[in-house]
Amino acid sequence: MSSFGGFNSAASTPGVARKEDVMQQVKQELALANAQELINSINKQCYKMCIPSPGTSLSSSEQASLSRCMDKYLASWDTVSRAYVARVTQENH
Amino acid sequence: MEAFDQATQQELKKFVEQETQKAQMQQTIHEFTGRCWESCITQAKSNQLDSKETACLQNCVNRFVDTSVFIVKRLQNIQQ
């Protein structure tokens, strides 16, 4: 089948190379979906936190707040991820 | 997937299953992060989490899992 997003491998060793291509593409698409989800969450939460009354443009203090909020959200994702993985690992024993 | 032999098809199936599981785990973490951010983080005066916020996030994750376990147990008790 040739319909994995129209993916074409030019110099393909049949079987071997194309399998790697499919895997690579699955990984890339999931990574993209994950990044989009994260960006949407940051957008929503940091807009709420940093832009309580929207003006005619983003002020420099709003931009500074967005930057801090974004760093903090990423750190929160990391903390939550570790806590969740630890808990799941513990529950399964 | 006729282009692939049987063994490769099996391998790809397993790979996709594993990746799907990873993606579901990440989805859950996104949901927890959103929920726990809302209950733990009220301002961004610094770009780092302080120790209180970190503890709150960790507690949030664990209490949410506890809640889920509690509800399932209680439902089982009611059924008996």
TrEMBL record, chain A:
The keyword Glycoprotein does not apply. It is a peripheral membrane protein. GO terms for biological process: protein insertion into mitochondrial inner membrane; protein transport. Keywords: Chaperone, Disulfide bond, Membrane, Metal-binding, Mitochondrion, Mitochondrion inner membrane, Protein transport, Translocation, Transport, Zinc. SUPFAM superfamilies: Tim10-like. GO terms for cellular component: mitochondrial inner membrane; mitochondrial intermembrane space chaperone complex. Residues 1-20 are annotated as: Disordered. One of its GO terms (molecular function) is metal ion binding. Residues 1-12 have a biased composition (Polar residues). Gene3D superfamilies: Mitochondrial import inner membrane translocase subunit tim13 like domains (1.10.287.810). Residues 24-84 form the Tim10-like domain. The twin CX3C motif contains 4 conserved Cys residues that form 2 disulfide bonds in the mitochondrial intermembrane space. Mitochondrial intermembrane chaperone that participates in the import and insertion of some multi-pass transmembrane proteins into the mitochondrial inner membrane. Also required for the transfer of beta-barrel precursors from the TOM complex to the sorting and assembly machinery (SAM complex) of the outer membrane. Acts as a chaperone-like protein that protects the hydrophobic precursors from aggregation and guide them through the mitochondrial intermembrane space. Belongs to the small Tim family. Heterohexamer. This is Mitochondrial import inner membrane translocase subunit.
UniProtKB/TrEMBL annotation, chain B:
InterPro entries: Tim10-like, Tim10-like_dom_sf. GO terms for cellular component: mitochondrial inner membrane. Residues 14-77 form the Tim10-like domain. Keywords: Chaperone, Disulfide bond, Membrane, Mitochondrion, Mitochondrion inner membrane, Protein transport, Translocation, Transport. The keyword Flavoprotein does not apply. It is found in: Mitochondrion inner membrane. Transmembrane segments: none annotated. One of its GO terms (biological process) is protein transport. The keyword ATP-binding does not apply. It comes from the Eukaryota. It is a peripheral membrane protein. Mitochondrial intermembrane chaperone that participates in the import and insertion of some multi-pass transmembrane proteins into the mitochondrial inner membrane. Also required for the transfer of beta-barrel precursors from the TOM complex to the sorting and assembly machinery (SAM complex) of the outer membrane. Acts as a chaperone-like protein that protects the hydrophobic precursors from aggregation and guide them through the mitochondrial intermembrane space. The twin CX3C motif contains 4 conserved Cys residues that form 2 disulfide bonds in the mitochondrial intermembrane space. Heterohexamer. This is Mitochondrial import inner membrane translocase subunit. The gene is TIM8.
